[in-house]
Structure formats: C-alpha cells, structure tokens
Amino acid sequence: MKQVYLKESACIACRLCEVYCRLQSSSSGDLVKAFKKESPRVLPKVRVDNHGALSLSVRCRHCEDASCVRACLTGALSRDPLTGLVTVDEERCIGCGTCVLICPLGVPQLDTARKKMIKCDLCQGKEIPACVANCPNEALVYAETDSVQPEEAVIK
Amino acid sequence: MTSLIKTDYLIIGNSVGGIGAAEAIRENDGAGYITIVSDESYHAYSRPLISDYLAHPGPVEKMLYRRPDFYEKNGISTLLGEKVIKINPEGHTVMLSGGQNITWRRLLLATGGTPIVPATPGADLKGVFTFNKLDDARAIDEFLKGRLETTAVVIGGGLIGVSVTEALVKRGVRVTVVELKDRVLNTILDEESSARETQALTLSGVSLITGHSVSRISSGLRGQVSGVAIDDGRMLGCDLVVFAVGVRPRLELAKDAGIKTNRGITVDRFMMTSAPGIYACGDAAEAYDFVLGEDRPTPVWPNAYEGGRVAGLNMAGVPTEYKGGTALNALKYFGVNIVSAGMVASPDASAETLSFKRNGIYRKVVIKHGKLVGLIFAGDIAKSGIVYNLMKDRIDVTDFKEALVADNFGLASLPEAIWQERLPRSTAGSVIASGASEEPEEALIGD
After folding, report:
1. For residue B430, what are the contacts with CB-CB under 8 A and spacing of at least 6?
2. CB contact under 8 A, B388 and A101
3. Does domain A62-119 have CATH number 3.30.70.20?
4. Structure pTM?
C-alpha cells in the first residue's frame, strides 16, 4: 500500500499539512470558512509535533498489526485486508478514546463536539493526499510501502 | 449415547477474548474447525455498549462487535445459549448442559467474569440487579418500562457503577451512588481526575455517598425493593438497586477440571493454562502485567482481545508470547474524557509523580526506577498513546521525563531513536524521493 513518509530534515513546522488536511475535510471547501466558520469545527487529521528545530508531521501509518484495531471496544476500527487502510466506521464509533491511548503515535483524535474519533484515511479518492500535495518543502512523500523493501533488502 | 461434536478448536465464551482467538486461528489455519460455545444467546456484542443500550434501547444489531456474517464468513460454528458444565482435560472433551459432548484438539477458556454480589439481606428482592451483560441491561430496561419518578441506588462507584448511573440518569432515574471508599473510580483515577468525575456526576443530579456501604435492602410489598439501609443507619428510599462492586473471574469450570487457578485462571506467557492444550484469556485469566512485572487479572476489553489473540496464535501452532497488558481505561462518562493506565498514584516513596495542570487540562505520569508505571490524561487526551507506549515498551524516561508533562509535548520531544522507530521509516522517504531528484536543501532548513 502507499503511505506518507516524512523527510524530517525538510519539515519546517509550517503546518500547511494541517491546514490543507482541514480544508480537505471541510464541507465548504473554503480555507477561511473551514477554519473560522464551520460547525462543528473541522479538525486536522495530521499533526505537527515541534521541539526546537525539530518538526515532525505525523499521521496514521496504517500499521499492518494495528493496535488501535485490536483495542477498539466496538469493532468500529478495522483494517482492509486488500488496501491495508485502517478506517473508522463512524456509525459504530462511540468516541471513547481507547484508540487514542493505545496508538504509539497518538494520532487518533477525539472530535469532542461530534463524540467521534477521527483519523487519516490518506485522502481516499484523491491521487495524492492533501498534506503531501501541499507540502511546500517536499518534506512529505507519498509512495508504495513495497517499493521501499527491495531497496532495503539490497542494502541490508 | 448422546451425540458427539468434533472440532479442532473449541472456544468457551463468545466475547472479545474468544473472538480475538478465533480471528487469530483463522488467519493461520484456513481449514481447521472452530467452534464457539456461549451461555449468552447473542452474536458477539460490544459489552461496553450495554450502558448505551440501557440509555437508548435499540436493536442488538447496532451493538455487534463484528459484522453479522462474521461467523459464516470465517467458517466458525456457534453453540449459543449453551452451557459447558464439565471439562475433561485428559480426554480432550467438554460436556454441555444438554448432555452433548464435544471433542477438541485445542481449548480456550474465555469465560469472562461474573458480578460480585456481597451477602446482603434483601439481595434477592425484585428490583435488585447487576450490570455486566446485555441481559442485565434488558432486565433493567423492562423494570423501568412504564414507571415514573424512579429512584435507584447504585452500590459501587467504579466503572460499572458510574456506567449504569449514566444510563439511568439518561432514562430520567434519580440515582444515589454508594461507594465504600472515599471517592468514585478510586482504582483507576487519582484524586484530581476523580474529582472531575464527581463534579460531572453531581452536575447531572446524582447523589454520592462515599465512605459507606449498604447493609440491607428493605422490602415493601410483594418482595419488591423499597429502599436500602446505609451502614450508619440512614435509610434511603428507592425502587431499584444495582450491585456494581466488581467482577470476579469465572473459574468454576477450570477448577473442577483441576486446572490451576489463583485470582484468575493461571496462564503462562503463551496464555496456556496448567493443562496442556488448554488456554485461557480475558477477564477469566490472570495474565502478565508489564507494569507490575507479575501476573494479575486486568479485566479490560483491549487486554482480553490481545490475550485471546495470543492464545489463538499458539493454538494454531504459531508460537507467540503475550507482551502483557496493564490496567487501562478510556472514560467518557457525562462528557468528561479521561484516560488512565497502570498505577494512577505513587505506589511507594521511590516513585515520582510529575503533572501538568492548565486550562482544564490535566496530565500526570508516575515514574519508578526511571520507567513509567502510570499515566492519566484528563480534559485533553490527545497524544496519550505516545506516553502509554513508552510505558509499555519499558523505556527509561529519566532523561526526558519533564517533556512528558510539558505544554507542547509530542513525538518531537522524545529522543530521536524513539521517534525514528515509531514513524514510517523516514530514511525510506529519501530513497523514494529520488524521483524528486534534487539534493536535500539542508541550508534552507537548517538555520
């Protein structure tokens, strides 16, 4: 499956990934409205963690052995065996926060207004996720997971 | 002679542990016969949702833990509403209450827990309930139907007590919670976070009596509950009583079969009991707690799945060690989001507590010998998973412990080796990025 990789040396905490993620999830499709007006408030599904000069753009990595899926109390979280995508079925999500506590990256986020968990779905339907497409510094790369492995195997 | 069923894998219990095992078995053995027996007659449902069910009764289908076609799709036979009454470990058989025998190659005891009902005069009256399974929620729902101005006493202010209280409040019931200790949720929350729950309960009109117990349930007409007597002599009028003082592992089957038990069914790190080929998991078992470094029951949903999964893998011939679990809870009662894990207060003088409190946000970590042994996030639970996994991985946090409770805490606050390992391999990014062709523009970013 494809995944978003971070070149942390090029991530400068501009947070445009957050901005464009939010735009992607907004109903208005308008940056200003998405940020200021839409209710319930549109939350980004990507997060920038910043400490000194280090900046990390973090989102769900769709783990093969996803601890959030295993911990989910209702079965709302699942991983598609074909696409590898970890998604949340909002109908069944009760917004308890168990996945927030169990995720090593801490990426599931509670939308407390809607009482649902939200997470990255790699912008299904778009060729390239909005965060990657709008990263001004090419710090984010969208690439096949599999394409990495042969390289690694050779290098060892 | 009664009929005989033959199966490769027999799972007793149709909740999260049993499902975790069945999924792991099927992933690794596409052909073996899997049979699940349960004394509950439903498809596996999300037990934590019984509170939502009681608040807004609806179709059971909405509570299902797996899709309705789960059993069929995975080739799992079910015997629902059937009770196992005897295990024969040597003969590899079990007997059902109907007299039927089942032979198995591998057996899993995912029998769960049963509510504790302390010996209390009047505990057998009409209007006295427990709250552990869907049928309990249904029974309370039936009881409430057509009643107006109902008053309830909930005995126990732990998870089950607060969860049934929330449901009852949503049904318009006036509730008094009687808790023996000095505060609600005292085993999973510290004073600060417990006070937040208390405030939320009080704002919802719930009365709290702490530091006391119910000594007697009194009866008016026809064996019905009319009130309770508190241990200090106070009388409280009420129409229903819910015992919510805790759950104990269901051990009878294991004990009768000579399988070793302690507080729960004893299992090794492969979730196998003292009897070869017989495994146990979930609330029934006493599995490894990575915080304490010893075995103890940690009856929470995610641990039951993990333990069940590990048991299933081993049953299917894939040797897998249980990494361990610990107490872990995510609460959302009355709209207050709190997560906690491990020990929520310093276990002894050698432990250290660090906390952060600002703008309604409360975070606390408990550290012992350099390693995390507990955490609480309240008000904002975001990124709690980063800390939980540091605890789970037994990482020495001495050098960056202050960062865990700092305002801008995040992955970037951790040592590079840790965030590198958690992110998708970032070096891979540069390998792939060769398509973008240019050299990394270090100068532009660096200074």
Report:
1. A7, B440
2. yes
3. yes
4. 0.93
